[in-house]
Amino acid sequence: MLLMLSLLLTGPQITTGSVLPASFLPPRMISITARIDFGPAHKPAKVQKVTVPEGASPKEALKKIFPVEQGSTCCHPEEVKGIDGISVDPLKNRWWRLMINGSGKNASPHKSHLKAGDLMEWVYIEDAQ
Amino acid sequence: MLLAYDIEGKVRLEPPFPEPVKITVSKEQQGDCGSVKSSPLLQISPEGYVANAVVKLEGDFPDTAPPVQNQSFVLDQTHCEFVPHVLLIPRGAPLSILNSEPFLHNVRAFDEKANMLFNQAMPIQGSLLKKTFEKGGRITLRCGVHHWMYALVIVQDHPYYALTDESGFFKLQNVPDGNHTLIVWHEALGEIRQSVNPQNAKVSVQYSAAK
């Protein structure tokens, strides 16, 4: 009885027209530039355009180019530990560094969201020790 | 009665010797650490004797006995360095990691496959972190704040390990009789293997010139 009264008061919840909530729409695809620099691993660098859904993470974009090894190198179990067989090497102080549009500040492999035209760079670095 | 012998020797590098590596500290960290640090990567005497080479026998030996009560294994963080740079520790023995400095260090430990074993901030002077390693092998400890800071903890799975001192000298004690393979490993120079018989107990190990 209460249910029937409720329906009468609020009316049926039918959306008119063809506008769907954004979550039902396929994601917009964007193009970014990816550059992977293997540095001291002495493999040729790779630069290519990648098409990904808008808001994709750098790690998702990277996986479209190379096999990615996940693991914790610092702070999260889903960090990028290796790219195309080249893994971080704590003994030699070699790590993968991510930069977006030339800056590593606030660039996160799994939390950042890519925008159209972004330059995503993964650089294998060797810090002095 | 089982016969046992001591094996001793020296590890040396052929000249020419590489220049010592100096690390420039970033301006933000100079207040705590000074402007330049010396790299511990390769420590050689003027005659070419190599410190911090890990010497061990290959083979199946009885597992390392637990350490005696008064034996302690301490890795300190002082002057923005880990001291000592290389430490031998029996499997299962407690390692104490100390921060002697009034600022933050962040200890991260990795096994030989670069798996992170722990990540521990140590912001307080005098704080102590206790860890044990149950498997033999090499652990690399790094500071997440000061990128040049690292140490190697060599976890022994049998008694026949030694570390070379500043004169390149090592001694393996109470080695059972028989033919053995001696393995010398240095982080910058690599690995050398050679056959030894404890009855000829003087050994010389020579690395060719550094690349």
The gist of it:
Chain A has 129 residues and is mainly beta. Helices cover 12% and strands 32% of the residues of chain A.
Q: Which labels suit this protein?
A:
heterodimer, A: 129 residues, mainly beta, Ferric Hydroxamate Uptake Protein, Chain A, domain 1, 4-stranded mixed beta sheet, 3-stranded antiparallel beta sheet, 32% strand, B: 211 residues, Immunoglobulin-like, 2 domains, 5-stranded mixed beta sheet, 4-stranded antiparallel beta sheet, 1 helix, 3% helix
In CATH terms, the superfamily of the largest domain in chain B is Immunoglobulins
Question: With helices defined by DSSP (H or I, 4 residues minimum), what is the helix count of chain A?
Answer: 2
Q: Give the number of helices of chain B.
A: 1
Helix content of chain B: under 10%
CATH topology of chain A: Ferric Hydroxamate Uptake Protein, Chain A, domain 1
Backbone structural class of chain B: mainly beta
Measured between the Cα atoms of the first and last residue of chain B, the distance is 47 Å
CATH class of the largest domain in chain B: Mainly Beta
Which residues of chain A form runs of ≥5 with pLDDT under 50?
none
The share of residues in extended strands of chain A comes to 25-35%
**Low-confidence stretches of chain B at least 5 residues in length (pLDDT < 50)?**
none
Oligomer: heterodimer
Q: How many β strands of chain B by DSSP?
A: 18
CATH architecture of the largest domain in chain B: Sandwich
Strand content of chain B: over 45%
Tally of extended strands of chain A?
A: 7
Shape by Cα distribution of chain B: globular
